[in-house]
From TrEMBL:
Localization, UniProt: Membrane
Name assigned to this protein: histidine kinase
Topology of the protein relative to the lipid bilayer: Multi-pass membrane protein
Annotated ranges, domain Histidine kinase: 229-448
Gene3D superfamilies linked to this entry: Histidine kinase-like ATPase, C-terminal domain, PAS domain
InterPro entries linked to this entry: BphY/WalK/GraS-like (IPR050351), HATPase_C_sf (IPR036890), HATPase_dom (IPR003594), His_kinase_dom (IPR005467), PAS (IPR000014), PAS-like_dom_sf (IPR035965), Sig_transdc_His_kin-like_C (IPR004358)
Keyword Transferase: yes
Molecular function (Gene Ontology), one example: kinase activity
Transmembrane segments: 7-27, 33-54
C-alpha cells in the first residue's frame, strides 16, 4: 500500500512537470514571454519539490537502516501527517522497527540463556581462532586451568609448558590427555577439539574435562574385580590344603600328644601320603598362578619396528594351522591397502593375535563352516587396526565386560591371563583392544 501511494505521487508529479514543460515550450513559440516565464518558475518549483519529496523518503529509509545497524531502536517517525503516502511510510517503518527490536531482544535473551548454560556447565569450553586468540572461555575452563582471564593460548605457558604445547598443536577432531599439577591438587584433563566456522572465520572449539573422578571409579572397579578373582583362585587352592592338612594332623596327634610311629595304622600312613601329594599339587598350582601374575606385571617395553601387516597375519595364520593340532576351521586374511605397514613389536603382537586366534578356534569347537578372519586396515580416523573375527558361539553379554579382568576365565583350563596380558601389550603400544559379540565375535586392535 505504501509503495503504491508513493508510486502514484511520483507519477502525478512527473505528469505535472511534463505538462508544465509542454506549456513552457508552447508559450515560448508563440512569443508569450510573460506566461512562459511564469511556466518556467512553476517548472523549477515543481522540480525542487519532486527532488525534496524523493530525498525526504530516501533520508527516512537511510536513517532507519543506520539506526538498525547501530542497534538503536528509539527512532520513531511521525505518523500525523497530511500527506497520506508519507504517513503510511512512517507507520510501516515504525512497525518494522518494532518487529526488528522484538527479534533483537529475543536473540539477546537466547544468547544470555546459552551463555548461562555454558557458564554453569561442568565441562570447560573455549574457542580459538587461527592466530591463537581465545574468543570465548567459560568459567569452568578458567578454573580447571587455574588462570583468569584467558585471552591467548600463549598464556598457558605460565600454567604448564607441556599443556601449552598440546593446545598449540591440537588439530580438529583430535583428542589428548594431560595431568595438570599445582600446589593444591592433581587434575587429569581430557582435551577434545572440533572445527567450527563463524562469520566465515575458521575456529577451533576445544572442550576440556576433568576425568579424574571417572578414572578413580574405573580404577576402583578394576581393583574390586581383580581382588574378587584373586580371592576366588587363592581360596580354591588353599581350602583343600587346609582341609587335608587338618585330616593328616589328626592321624599324628591325639589331643596334645604326638602318636608314635609304631602306633600308626597302615591305612593312616597311606592316606597321609596321598594327602601330601594333593597338597604338593595344590601348592604347584598356586605357584603357577603367582608366576602368571608376575608375568602380567613384567611385560617389557615394546621393541617396535616397521613391518608389513600382511607378513604378521600370515605368520599368525600359519601358527594357528599347526599340524600338531589339526582343525577344520577356515582361516582367511584381508589387508587393505595391501602395502599396509605397522610400527609394532612383532613378537608381542603375534602373541596377542595367536591368543585371540586360539580363543576363536575354541569357540568354534570344530563346528561346520567355522571361519576365522584376520583383517588389517585403516579406519575413518586414519588409525591402523587389526581385527580377529570368528563366527563361533560368541561371548555372553553379561561376561563381555569381565573378559579383560586378570585371571577371569570361563574355561576349565588356563589361568585367565591371556586377554588381560593382550590388553597390557596394546596399552604399551599406545593403542587399545575392544570386543563386540553380536552376529560375529570381533576383537579389534587399534594403533595410534
Amino acid at each position: 500500500m505504501v509503495s503504491r501511494n508513493i508510486y502514484l505521487q511520483l507519477v502525478f508529479r512527473i505528469i505535472l512537470l511534463t505538462l508544465t514543460a509542454v506549456a513552457l515550450g508552447f508559450l515560448s513559440v508563440n512569443e508569450n514571454y510573460i506566461l512562459a516565464v511564469l511556466c518556467l518558475f512553476l517548472l523549477i518549483l515543481q522540480t525542487y519539490f519532486l527532488i525534496y519529496y524523493v530525498n525526504q523518503t530516501n533520508r527516512k529509509i537511510a536513517y532507519f537502516f543506520d539506526a538498525i545497524k547501530n542497534e538503536d531502536f528509539t527512532l520513531r517517525f511521525p505518523e500525523k501527517l497530511s500527506v497520506q503516502s508519507l504517513k503510511e511510510l512512517n507507520h510501516s517503518l515504525n512497525v518494522l522497527n518494532e518487529m526488528i527490536q522484538d527479534i533483537h531482544l529475543k536473540k539477546q535473551a537466547q544468547e544470555q540463556f546459552y551463555q548461562e548454560i555454558l557458564k554453569q556447565a561442568d565441562i570447560g569450553i573455549m574457542t580459538i581462532n587461527d592466530k591463537g586468540h581465545i574468543l570465548y572461555a567459560n568459567p569452568t575452563i578458567e578454573r580447571l586451568l587455574n588462570y583468569h582471564p584467558l585471552n591467548h593460548v600463549k598464556q598457558l605457558k605460565q600454567v604448564d609448558e607441556e599443556l601449552f604445547q598440546k593446545f598449540e598443536n591440537l588439530q580438529p577432531f583430535e583428542s589428548n590427555t594431560h595431568q595438570l599439577t599445582n600446589e593444591r591438587e592433581k587434575t587429569e584433563l581430557a582435551l577434545k577439539a572440533t572445527a567450527v566456522t563463524v562469520d566465515a572465520s575458521p575456529l577451533l572449539l576445544v572442550v576440556v574435562q576433568d576425568i579424574r573422578k571417572e578414572l578413580d571409579e574405573k580404577e576402583t572397579d578394576s581393583w574390586v574385580k581383580l581382588i574378587r578373582v584373586l580371592t576366588h583362585e587363592i581360596m580354591n587352592t588353599i581350602t583343600p590344603i587346609t582341609s587335608i592338612s587338618d585330616s593328616i594332623l589328626r592321624y599324628f596327634k591325639k589331643g596334645e600328644h604326638v602318636v608314635k610311629g609304631a602306633d600308626l595304622p597302615e591305612e593312616h600312613l597311606s592316606s597321609a601320603a596321598k594327602g601330601l601329594e594333593v597338597i604338593k599339587e595344590q601348592g604347584s598350582d598356586l605357584m603357577n598362578f603367582v608366576q602368571s601374575y608376575r608375568k602380567f606385571l613384567s611385560v617389557p617395553e615394546p621393541d617396535r619396528e616397521l613391518i608389513p601387516a600382511k607378513n604378521v597375519l600370515e605368520k599368525v595364520a600359519l601358527l594357528l594351522e599347526s599340524p600338531d593340532e589339526p582343525t577344520s576351521t577356515k582361516i582367511e586374511i584381508q589387508v587393505s591397502p595391501e602395502d599396509l605397514e605397522l610400527y609394532i613389536d612383532v613378537k608381542q603382537i603375534t602373541q596377542v593375535l595367536l591368543n585371540l586366534g586360539k580363543n576363536a578356534q575354541q569357540s568354534l569347537n570344530n563346528q561346520e563352516n567355522g571361519e576365522i578372519l584376520l583383517v588389517a586396515g585403516v579406519d575413518l580416523k586414519d588409525k591402523k587396526y587389526i581385527q580377529v573375527i570368528d563366527n563361533g558361539l560368541g561371548i555372553p553379554e553379561e561376561l563381555i565386560n569381565e573378559i579383560f579382568v586378570p585371571f577371569f576365565t570361563t574355561k576349565n583350563t588356563g589361568t585367565g591371563i591371556g586377554l588381560s596380558l593382550s590388553k597390557q601389550i596394546m596399552r604399551l603400544h599406545k593403542g587399545g583392544i575392544q570386543v563386540s559379540s553380536k552376529e560375529r565375535t570381533t576383537f579389534t586392535l587399534t594403533f595410534d
